[in-house]
Amino acid sequence: xxxxxxxxxxxxxxxxxxxxxxxxxxxxxxxxxxxxxxxxxxxxxxxxxxxxxxxxxxxxxxxxxxxxxxxxxxxxxxxxxxxxxxxxxxxxxxxxxxxxxxxxxxxxxxxxxxxxxxxxxxxxxxxxxxxxxxxxxxxxxxxxxxxxxxxxxxxxxxxxxxxxxxxxxxxxxxxxxxxxxxx
Length: 183
Known about the structure:
Blueprint lengths: L2 H26 L1 H8 L4 H12 L5 H13 L3 H37 L3 H5 L4 H16 L5 H9 L4 H25 L1
């Protein structure tokens, strides 16, 4: 196997391993315990919940925790601190996607026999659509991995990504806090 194929296998194994760990932690309630145990210290709890807010495996308990923290604290503070935590989580995903997965994706595109399909990815319109759809996913309650991957594949500058991730995640956490206070 060549280097790209080895990287692909390694990346896939890492994803499978992280899924298994996340399932184990979710089944045991460890995520919820970690977040709710730090509720008394709103900044730490909001930050940790923000980091966990971006992953498909931890988004649900993090959303619940952010709602609980926002009910007894300033929604703005929870949104800002949680947004900073989410930014850290997104940056980890962005670095991985931009540096590793985009290289593997490019390799797969080159060896694929369906070049017509992948020629769509080279259109100028596609260069604008992918980041836009990625930003919408980050702003939505959906986990950020797909949106971050889209932004990573679009070769977005780090500074734009940082601003976009922070603003969109903070807005999403603010909405969660407003809903939690209303209920």
